[in-house]
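fyi for ur records
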Amino acid sequence: KLGKKTAATMHDVVEKIIKPLCIQQKCSYSELLPPQLIAAFVSHNWTTEFGKFVRTVLKHALTCFPNDPWSARYWVCSFALYQPEVSLPDT
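which gave:
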């Protein structure tokens, strides 16, 4: 509907934040960070509200790593792959 705000999805985050950063730095987002051991692989729907995605991963970290949930590292394709070379179908 006109005038109705919609929540950002992973598509939006990648297009507006991740891809421009990848192009500027000539690498994936994850390559900008220090190497770390991965605790879990995350499979996700690109059309889900990004905030819900973050809350879900946080809930997983709090449940599976209760002693130190903030140190849990996740492999997420959106951040690990060089996005300017990734093509997804339109939704």
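The two ends are 17 Å apart (CA to CA). thats all i got for now
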